[in-house]
Amino acid sequence: MSNEVLSQEEIEKMLSDTETPAQETSGEDLSVDNYLTKSEQDLLGEIGNICMGTSATTMSTLLGRKTTITTPELSIHTVESLSGEYPAPLVVSEIKYTRGLEGNNLLILKEYDVAKITNLMLGDEEEIDPDNIELTEIHMSAIGEIMNQMVGSSATALADMLHRMVDISTPVTKRISIHDENLSDFFANNNELFVRINFHMEIEELLTSEIMQVLTVGFAKEMANQVWQQMQADMGVETNEPAVTGEQPGGKPAPQNPTPQPTSIPAAPGPVASVSPAAQAGRTQPQVIHEQQNIRVQQPQFQSFNEIGGNAAVPSLENIEMILDVPMSVTVELGRVKKKIKDILDFNTGAVVVLDRAAGETVDILVNGKCIGKGEVVVIDDNYGVRITEINMPSARELL
Questions:
Q1: Which of 138, 166, 269, 285 is the residue whose CA sits 20 to 30 A from 205?
Q2: Position 348 confidence tier, pLDDT thresholds 50, 70, 90
Q3: Residues in a beta bridge with 390
Q4: In angstroms, rounded to a whole number, what is the distance separating the alpha carbons of residues 393 and 125?
């Protein structure tokens, strides 16, 4: 046994080497497969695709630029990991579900993207310095209006998926730093794990970036479960599956309020998951039996409208006195010609366009696009006119 005495520095170093921080979570532990099943991931991705698709349409209308929001990517985060990825301030819109679902959902944009979008709305073409971004009250009001419209259309799309009313409170949009504010204003428990759904966002001739959704793992699982149950109900499949207990994939403990999981089918049906034909062959589909019925089919009988007599309900077409004051467009057509686009692009001042009518031929007289006769071009007091030489008046029905 050695009598050597360790110094205080050596003792502290040994203790620091053996200690493991209680709150530290490794990258492997935050794998999305450890907290969400494949079916839940597929469902959340499809929900995001549908909701963000309607949001992109709304943004396109407001900005007057084609906007696409696609390609959802799911990941699991703690507050620390989120703040590490996004040290710069972000613009966050909080969505609180008040009916149909219970939970909070954050819609997040980068500060630089918000500056570009709001400048476009305000007609400001000044270049933005990424290192010196200033968002005034006008900018925040503009992006708040965009976010309100987007989350409103997104909630409508979610209501269509669930076949029930989904209400949200008025979204609150603010500029925050995740590291400083710790999301405490949005979620009651900052120690929860969060699902971040990243979407690729592209606004025509403006920017290519990302837009994010952040929600708790528990709320994400509840949303996926409710959509799954509605899909099963639409297919006519009864589900009485028990809530998942024990451990999640990867050895993680199940949440305190577990929800039923679609564990009996490897992937969600329809557009939610991409399933190989071999997998589909082994899947049991609900059978629909159509019973043959004896149905008498008769030829439909329609009333003839060729001759309509005047009566109190339908006036005679010959009696047009009541519409004699209705204005009609009279057009004189000198001629027409068809040209290819490349020929039209070569037009310039002084170019001559040869029409399909020879010099001296009569011109067509049209009323509401219908040819009623022909005539000759004359000049009356410095104005062009047409002397009618032929009348081919269509019926009143055709003119009207």
A1: 138
A2: confident
A3: 374
A4: 58
71 contacts: CB under 8 Å, gap ≥ 6? 199, 200
SS3 content of the chain, % helix, strand, coil (to 5): 30, 20, 45
What's the maximum distance between 2 C-alpha atoms anywhere in the chain?
A: 131
Which tokens in the block code for residue 313? 């309900």
How confident is the model over 231-252, as pLDDT tens digits? 888 887 765 543 443 344 444 4
Q: In residues, how long is the chain?
A: 400
Residues 6+ apart with CB under 8 A from 165: 99, 100, 159
Which of 100-104, 149-153, 237-241, 390-394 bottoms out in mean pLDDT, i.e. has the lowest?
Answer: 237-241
pLDDT tens digit sequence for 258-269: 444 443 334 444
φ/ψ region of 85 (left if φ > 0, alpha if ψ in -120 to 50, else beta) reads alpha
Which secondary structure element, helix H or strand E, spans residue 371, and what is its range?
Answer: strand 370-380
